[in-house]
């Protein structure tokens, strides 16, 4: 495997810090840089799926959430937030953009006038069903470099780290 720009950058940063501040272990900074670069590269890779449809990552996440988890009646904004990676404060804005594109609709609740339900339109469902196979193929192509055991280990470590960070945020 040939060194990438990021590998070269990481080694340069490590060398520079050892020279400038030898008493400091730069490993945490390097890991954060590596994870940030990985997140950006992964995002750019999978965005190839939905950007031709003029959808941003948050919109794609909401469309996927509605496609996999919403009953015919749809989901409330709170349910949608709980089932997606989008925070409650951002849901309204993201949903409005998808409504403007004709991909989702907002309907008032029959039992509670203060509550609305969000659901895919026919056009939204068709778009997700059209793009989803290619989306999964893009993700699989990235992960094919890892063995099944490595994937399992990566998932285990990512879950462990995320649980630690989220529990620290909750305190």
UniProtKB/TrEMBL annotation:
Q: Which GO terms describe its molecular function?
A: DNA binding; DNA-binding transcription factor activity
**Which keywords are on file for this protein?**
DNA-binding, Transcription, Transcription regulation
The protein depicted here goes by the name: MarR family transcriptional regulator
In terms of SMART domains, this protein maps to: HTH_MARR
Q: What Pfam families does UniProt report for this protein, alphabetically? A: MarR_2
Q: Which residues form the HTH marR-type domain?
A: 28-163
Q: Which domain of life is it from?
A: Bacteria
Does Membrane show up as a keyword for this record? no
Species name: Deinococcus puniceus
Q: Does the keyword DNA-binding apply?
A: yes
